[in-house]
Write a structure and sequence with these properties.
The structure holds 2 protein chains of 2 kinds. Chain A contains 24 helices and no strands. By secondary structure, chain A is mainly α. The longest helix of chain A has about 40 residues. The chains are: A mainly alpha, B alpha/beta. At the A-B interface, α15 and α19 of A face α2, α3 and α4 of B.
């Protein structure tokens, strides 16, 4: 029975992939092209990964051969293997949150109702984890390293490396599985899921810069510090001591096996292998209660209260009709309540804030870090507009079925596009303020005129690119969930690329005007009025091309409705 | 007789599949029209064509005496729709959703507030009006979709399976609302799989099978002395006698 069920599960996985590509009779040619462009990009990435896999495998065989020659060579190979294998370990640690967009085990409601043993279902999830790209890239190398050792005439080393390799791969797959299951259990309630996702994104985005803030000034003691480090070099711990310290980590335990095997310390090598096997066993044991709980605890979550809407006031905007404002207000409200909506506004501010803090630090004796206030501001502006692409490039699908409601209401396509552009524009305007505020505060010597000009430049760049974004959204529509990360929240890749080109084109004149004001005329206060004129021109141009956007959206409305309805 | 919805040769194809095949539909004004058919017969596709979500491949339509191809917005101002799929903003509250729809329809603040309060109260959503739609159950979403359709006080309602997932109490309330709406001169075009409900509330029916209209007219005429279920089975389920009896089923 088990074999039959396994075959059925494999077939299910295969058919899901094939049907996603081929069974979409309701889609038109352009929509098919849009979907295939995503597939082609993945094929390109896969094709690029093949040389990496082959290269790693060849390096692993050579490493096995070299490790078999002497203790010192084994130490070098062990260190290289240990560091290399940190990559799949880190990937598997991050994978659960990164892959939440794909749905994971939540697809299994039907599977849960079928007579499939729970253990088999659990093991199937472990096997699915082995299909992860990181696993597939590194597994051949780990499994082929023993071949080199065997070729060099060290069968015991080959055996130890093989056992350690298999145990390491099991740990990687099981770790990914356990964390995915635990994350899914944790994220079942919508509010809790969104909070965790937001915190994760904030942590992830600040991870690279945060350590710089805590670097002790003595670390920048220039030549003196360098001399000290050099003087300490002879006392640096040998490979064995480093490994002894990090041995509990799976890559280190794997490296230690090669090192100990290379040095003929078979007792220690056996201990390393036992450590890895025990780790794999513990992880497997951990999957059992988590999986059981995931299967038995229903999905749910209490709702949160938001402002009472019945009492809400009607907004009015100059030059915008009431329906346009209604669309904009609804979009804005709904967007700012999603994780991605919050992130596109907060993320650039986080980055510019932390970078401004890092670059403004003056450590005695250390060379100044090279990034001027204007460059940091430009980075913030570009980051804001690029980040908003996640919404702008897929603006007709980001609210899901709500688009059908909008299409059923007495709204012209022009009103719909304008309302969405206003909503996203409001996010851009707010995001730009937040992104420019930290550098403006931390670099007070920079003229306020520069920050005003940059804010206007950002608004102008978005306004200039907004019609292109609307057209791209209509052409390359993709159903997304904005409170998930990973592929589930990303727009079509080609649409994003074309949007960035449009942004660059729209931003270029504004950047040139700021450059002329600052560098040629050396008069910062001229920059804001110059860019304001350009911004007004960009808005008027965007308004003028609305009929073109309207025609494209009208031509695509049927397809848009089908896509957001999941057809 | 005033006609609220009229189609001539309405056809919609998806590639080789003809979902709606030369449909001649006639829905009298002030009628409660039950549009019935087996799964995949073309009911929802027809409704999508009538509400502008799908373009017909051929044929013509008149909704409230106007051609949707030329007067789409005017028609939408006078119609309400509960579509097949959930068409709601996940991250708006019920109140915000109704506020949005009311503003698009140009309702003033006082009218909007009054209608929103009454609809939410009647549909038993007042206690959840401040929750996001994302946290609503399927039945609550259906009720909100109904409120959205009713809010602008339309002349014509298109309802695609409005009773699906609705509890008995709310179902009764909705039936009463719709019956009152028709008594006051409104027109309802409703699809439903629950024939008992249609039999109780509808005065006209149309039955579609494989995209073709197989019967249409007053309920009493179509039923011809039988129950609606018997008439329906006779019209679209006549092959049932030749189908496997599943004798292996215990």
């Amino acid at each position: 029975m088990t074999g039959r069920i396994v075959r059925a599960l494999v077939w299910l996985q295969w058919r899901t992939v094939v049907n996603r590509l081929t069974r979409s009779s309701h889609r038109d040619g352009l929509e098919q092209a849009s979907r295939w462009s995503e597939v082609v990009l993945r094929v390109i990435v896969t094709a690029l990964a093949i040389p990496l896999v082959v290269g790693l495998a060849i390096a692993a065989i050579a490493g096995g051969y070299v490790a078999a020659r002497s203790r010192d060579d084994a130490a070098v190979v062990a260190l290289a293997a240990g560091f290399t294998l940190i990559v799949p370990l880190l990937w598997m640690l991050l994978r659960p949150l990164m892959m939440l967009g794909s749905g994971g085990i939540e697809r299994g409601i039907l599977l849960r109702l079928l007579p499939i043993p729970t253990g088999l279902l659990r093991n199937a999830e472990v096997v699915r984890a082995m299909a992860d790209p990181a696993f597939l890239v590194f597994a051949p190398a780990v499994l082929l390293l023993p071949l080199g050792a065997a070729a060099a005439g060290r069968p015991m080393l080959a055996l130890a490396a093989m056992l350690a390799g298999v145990a390491f791969l099991a740990i990687i797959a099981l770790l990914g599985n356990v964390l995915t299951l635990a994350a899914q259990l944790l994220l079942r309630g919508r509010r809790r899921a969104e909070l965790v996702t937001l915190l994760f994104l904030v942590a992830l985005s600040t991870m690279g810069v945060l350590p710089q803030l805590f670097v002790h000034p003595s670390a920048h003691d220039g030549d003196a510090g360098g001399a000290k480090t050099a003087a300490e070099a002879p006392d640096a711990p040998p490979t064995e001591r480093i490994l002894a310290f990090v041995r509990p980590l799976p890559p280190a335990a794997y490296a230690a096996t090669i090192l100990d095997g290379g040095a003929n310390r078979w007792g220690l090598a056996a201990l390393d292998v036992a450590l890895l096997l025990a780790g794999a066993g513990l992880l497997y044991a951990a999957t059992i209660p988590i999986h059981r709980r995931l299967m038995t605890v229903p999905e749910g979550g209490r709702g949160r209260k938001v402002d009472a809407a019945v009492r809400e006031r009607h907004l009015h905007l100059p030059f915008a009709s009431s329906p346009t404002v209604a669309v904009a207000a609804a979009e804005l409200r709904a967007l700012t309540r999603t994780v991605r909506g919050k992130m596109v506004v907060l993320y650039p501010a986080l980055m510019t804030g932390m970078m401004a803090a890092v670059f403004s630090r003056k450590v005695e004796g250390a060379p100044p870090l090279q990034m001027g206030a204007t460059a940091l501001g430009a980075f913030g502006v570009f980051g804001t507009i690029a980040g908003i692409g996640a919404l702008a490039c897929n603006q007709f699908a980001i609210q899901g079925g709500a688009l059908v409601l909008e299409l059923l209401l007495p709204l012209r396509e022009r009103t719909l596009a304008a309302g969405k552009a206003v909503a996203i524009g409001a996010l851009v305007a707010a995001g730009l303020v937040l992104a420019l505020l930290p550098p403006a505060v931390i670099f007070p010597e920079t003229s306020p005129a520069v920050w005003i000009a940059m804010w206007l430049a950002g608004v102008a760049a978005y306004a200039g690119a907004a019609p292109a974004a609307a057209v791209l959204s209509a052409l390359f529509v993709k159903p997304v969930e904005l409170s998930r990360i990973g592929r589930g929240g990303q727009p079509n890749a080609l649409a994003t690329l074309l949007y960035l080109i449009a942004v660059a084109a729209a931003a270029a004149p504004a950047a040139a005007l700021i450059f002329v004001a600052l560098k040629v005329l050396a008069a910062p206060w001229i920059a804001p009025p110059l860019v304001l004129v350009y911004a007004i021109a960009a808005v008027l141009l965007a308004r003028a091309v609305l009929p073109i956007v309207e025609r494209v959206v009208a031509a695509r409305r049927e397809n848009l409705a089908l896509v957001v309805a999941g057809r | 007789m005033d006609i609220a919805v009229e189609t001539h040769g309405l056809t919609r194809r998806f590639g080789d599949l003809v979902a709606v095949d030369h449909l001649d539909l006639t829905v009298p004004s002030g009628s409660f029209y039950g549009f019935l058919g087996p799964n995949g017969a073309g009911k929802s596709t027809t409704l999508k064509c009538l509400t502008g979500l799908l373009k017909p491949s051929s044929g013509s339509m008149l909704i409230l005496g106007r051609d949707p191809a030329h007067a789409g917005l005017e028609i939408k101002r006078e119609t309400g729709v509960v579509p097949e799929e959930e068409a709601l903003f996940e991250r708006l509250t019920a109140g915000e959703t109704l506020s949005f729809v009311g503003r698009v329809h140009g309702l003033d603040g006082a009218t909007l507030q009054q209608r929103t309060g009454e609809l939410l109260e009647l549909l038993d959503l007042a206690g959840s009006a401040e929750k996001l739609v994302a946290d609503y159950s399927h039945g609550m979403r259906k009720k909100l979709a109904m409120a959205v359709a009713l809010l602008p006080a339309p002349r014509l309602l298109f309802l695609d399976e409005p009773f699906e997932g609705i509890d008995a109490v709310a179902s009764r309330q909705i039936k009463d609302i719709l019956s009152g709406f028709v008594r006051r001169g409104g027109t309802v075009l409703l699809t439903s799989h629950i024939l008992e409900i249609v039999e109780r509330v509808a005065d006209h029916v149309g039955i579609i099978d494989h995209g073709r209209l197989v019967a249409q007219g007053r309920l009493a005429d179509v039923a011809a002395g039988r129950t609606l279920e018997d008439a329906f089975i006779a019209l679209v389920g006549d092959g049932a006698v030749d189908k496997p009896a599943l004798e292996w089923l215990a």
